[in-house]
Structures are given as structure tokens and as C-alpha cells.
Amino acid sequence: MSEEQTATTTAPVLEVQRRKVANVFRGAPWIFPNAVRNGPDEPGLLKVVTETGRFVGWADYNPQAPVPGRLLSRGEDWPGEEVWLRLRLQSALERRMRLGYSFGGGGVRLVNGEGDGMPGLVIDAYGTTMVYDFYTRAMRERGELIVQILKPQFSDYHHVMRMGRDAAEREHCEPLEPATTEIIFGENGLCFQAQLDASQKTGFYLDQRDNRRFIARCAAGRRVLDLFAYHAAFSLSALAAGARSALAVDSSTEALATAMKDAERNGLSLMTSEADVFSSLPEIAKHGPFDMIICDPPKMAPSRKHREKGLGAYRRLCRQCLPMLGQGGLLLLSSCSQAIDTDDLRGILGQISSRQRLALDVVAITHQPADHPWPVGFLTGRYLSTVIVERRGQM
Ligand code: SAH
């Protein structure tokens, strides 16, 4: 018997209640606290079985985390951490190639956690910097090994590890502040800066890349209002494609300072306003009408219990944005909360446009792009929902 096989038969066990892991048998990789019947007090890699002895899989277990179990594999034999990582990382890379992505100058998500069978790990390539973002204590501990595995294939890259404050708090460990903070990379022919620290995601919103391309395609001649703009990537994409003007609104001084730097880098003329979108929309309306409004707020409903409050915020935004939209104007409305999806956004747009007697047509409904995959049985993984509508005229 090999060393790995011995480890497989003697591995510590996590016993779960069969009825409480029905989601896992249907394809979700998360084991919640109410499913756990018996497990060690310490975090570790465990073999998961039900109370009747049915094998579930191998999981990272952290009894202190709100999601204590994250399934790594459904195969009975555990190949060992390094082999498992090598196989998963290679297949994530091959998948990106099959889907038509390339590495070198642009921004590409190489690993999207559960969607690539590696819960707790996100890897983004920005130009020639590889950013490793850890969401679980177990993945954080594998950090050096992960970098070591990818380094030979990305030998001319900088490799930067981080763990955000929120994730570290949830997992009861220390955040990891990256040393490199400014990274320049390309997207749709423009240069952007990704900002690394322990607060934002991996420093840029790659998940809106395809929507920015959509917006650029029809931006010529339009006056653009970009709400919750961050680095104003939507505005800059529109300006580069011939938009007449773009006003980027955000409450973060740093985000707008980077937006201005990015505008200069690309030789574009951007207007910014540092403000709370919710309270300043009446003032902003005085600069309207606009031919294109982007409304991409932060997470409005971190969980299902915040859903009603989040929907209320979207209603307020729509009530104020729709009257600012000129004839033929486009509104892009996004939700990065899993609890608020495209049906919710469409419903709100329908309700408010009919009250305001505006004819609105849906021109596109999108989710996150192909380098952000999610397991088909795990709707939590589909977190980005966008509806794009056009104002046709009065009803
Ligand atoms: N559309 C951006 C991503 C937006 S992320 C892109 O494509 O890159 C959400 C942004 O909303 C963050 O930059 C955050 O600073 C900003 N924000 C959060 N609350 C806000 C508020 N009340 N008013 C204005 N901006 C806000």
C-alpha cells in the first residue's frame, strides 16, 4: 500500500447528516454547520461520510467558518494535495485556452473557486501579474505550493498573494496584505490599473468585461452617466469608442483618483464626481438627460435575509435613473448579489417604467463571463446579473 493510499484509509472523518447534504449530492460543494454531526475541533482536510456510512467526498473543514465544509473532490481515492492541485490548476488553464482566452497582456480569471473545483481560491492574471486570492484558511495555507506549481508556466510573471479582511474574519485567520499594489494591464484595447489591498476583490472588476464591450459597441456620440464607477472602466470604454462625454460617480476618493490616472493613460477626457449616489441623484439629474446610464452598485443583499432591503435600494435607483434617460437611451443595471437576479431587476424595471409611463425594452440579459464559471447545481456561484434596457419613448 502506498503512502497516499494509507492516508486515504486512515484520514480523519467528518460525519454529516444525509438529509442535510442533499444540496451536495445535487452538485453544490458547500457543507453548512447544520449538516455536521461529528467532526474534529481543528481545521483540516477530511473524508466526508453520512451517518449511514455513504461516502460524500473530500473536503476542507474549518469548524469556525460560517461554511465549515468545502468539497474538493468526489472521488473515493484522495491523490494527495499536490497531485490534486496540479490536476485542477492544469485543467483550469486548459479550459481558459479552450474558451479562447489568452494570457500575456490582458485580465483573465484563471481560477474561479467552486467553478473550477477549487473552493476558496481565485486566481486572476493581470498583464504579467498573477494575483492569488484566498477565501478559506486551507487555501491560504496552500498558497506557496499553488504559486510553486504555476510558476514554471508563468515564469516571467509577478506572483502576488492576498487574503481580504472579510474572508480572513470569516475564516478566523489573519488577512494577507499584498506587497505589490499597482498593476497595469489591458482590456478591450485600453490600459487599466488594478489596485491591490485587503479591501477590494482582486483589484478590478473583470466580471464586467463583456458588458463593457457591449457598452463600447454602441457608445458613439452618447452622453454617459456611470454610477458606482470604481475606476470608471465603463466610462473609459465608452469614451474610447466615441462617447460624447462621461461622468463617473463614486463615493471613493481613491477609486476616482485611479479613474483619472487611467483616463490620462489612455488620453481620454473623463468627468468625475465624488458623491453618495443615493443622496446625490437629484443633483446629478440636473446634468441630464443622458443617453447611457450604467448602474453597477456594490452588493446590495449579502444574503437572502437582506433581499427586501436590497430590492428597495434598486427600486429607488430605478425611480431616479429612468427619468434621466433620453429617447433611445440605454440603462445597464447590474446586481452582484446572488439573492437579487435578472428576474428581480427586470421585474423592478417593469413596475417602475409602467408607473412612469415609459416604454422600455430589454436588449440584453447577461451573467458573469466564461472565465468565471460556476457548477450547474450551485446557483450561489452565479452572482452577477445584468439587464440592459432601451427607452423607446412614452407608453
Ligand atoms: N462598475 C465598476 C465596479 C463597481 S464596484 C467597474 O466596472 O469596474 C462598486 C463601487 O461602488 C465601488 O467603487 C464603491 O466605492 C462604490 N460605492 C459603494 N457605495 C457607494 C455609494 N453609496 N455611492 C457611490 N459609490 C458607492
Would you mind describing this structure in some detail?
This protein is of the alpha/beta class. Helix content is 30%, strand content 29%. It contains twelve helices and 19 strands. The protein has a seven-stranded mixed β-sheet, with helices on both faces. Strands 2-6-5-4-1-3 form a six-stranded mixed β-sheet. Strands 7-8-9-10 form a four-stranded mixed β-sheet. Helix 3 packs across helix 5, helix 10 runs parallel beside helix 11 and helix 11 crosses helix 12. The longest helix has 18 residues. The relative contact order is 0.09. The mean pLDDT is 94. Bound molecules: S-adenosyl-L-homocysteine (SAH). The site of S-adenosyl-L-homocysteine (SAH) has 17 residues, from helix 8 and helix 10.
SSE inventory with pairings:
Elements: H1 3-10, E1 13-16, H2 22-25, E2 30-31, E3 36-38, E4 44-50, E5 55-61, E6 69-73, H3 81-98, E7 107-112, E8 121-126, E9 129-134, H4 137-141, H5 143-150, E10 158-162, H6 165-171, E11 182-187, E12 190-195, H7 209-217, E13 223-227, H8 233-240, E14 245-250, H9 253-265, E15 271-274, H10 277-285, E16 290-295, H11 307-321, E17 325-335, H12 342-355, E18 358-367, E19 385-394
Parallel strand pairs: 1-4, 9-10, 13-14, 13-16, 14-15, 16-17
Antiparallel strand pairs: 1-3, 2-6, 4-5, 5-6, 7-8, 8-9, 11-12, 17-19, 18-19
Helix pairs in contact: 3-5, 7-8, 10-11, 11-12
This protein binds S-adenosyl-L-homocysteine.
